[in-house]
Amino acid sequence: MSALKDKLKADLSTSMKARDEVRLRTIRMALAAINVEEVAGKSARELSDDEVVKVLTREAKKRREASEAFANAGRAEQAQAELDEQAVLEEYLPAQLSDEELGALVDEAIAESGASGPKAMGQVMKILNPKVAGRAEGGRVAQAVRDRLAS
Predict the structure, then answer these.
(1) Fewer CB atoms inside 10 A, N or C side of the chain?
(2) Widest CA span of the chain, in angstroms?
(3) Per-residue pLDDT, 71
(4) What digits encode the pLDDT tens for the residues 72-91?
(5) Helices within 19-151 (DSSP H only)
(6) Domains defined along the chain, listed by start
(7) Sorted alphabetically, which InterPro entries does this protein's record hold (predicted)?
(8) Which residues make Cβ contacts (< 8 Å) with residue 132, sequence separation at least 6?
């Protein structure tokens, strides 16, 4: 079993004992999403830590988008609940790259690929994605690459 999944299970029982409702429901949801991912496909399998991080990243993104939707609909209480869940999930994710760190990685990838112009974005993304996996959202990475290649 992955170390991250073990940590989630341990934190689940801790939050039950502490009666921390937000943390409890968030970890339960995360473990359910991991279990669904494990049984998806032709045969059941155990997820690696990297795969668990991808599932948690996807769940955190869902919470952020739901929060925005609730906020736009004038439902502040539900929006805050989604943000609280997102905060719990982010505790289990690797630290996000700052704009400067992401920019430096983009510059390295552009230099490595020898790319110039927006048409070379695919080559740069192919080199860059493994370096930023789980530490920056895909849309943010793509925007940084687009900005660098356009200038």
Answers:
(1) C
(2) 56
(3) 93
(4) 999 999 999 999 999 999 88
(5) 21-39, 49-72, 76-90, 99-113, 121-132, 138-150
(6) 3-90 (1.10.1510.10), 99-150 (1.10.10.410)
(7) Asn/Gln_tRNA_amidoTrase-B-like, GatB_Yqey_C_2, YqeY/Aim41, YqeY/Aim41_N
(8) 97, 102, 105, 141
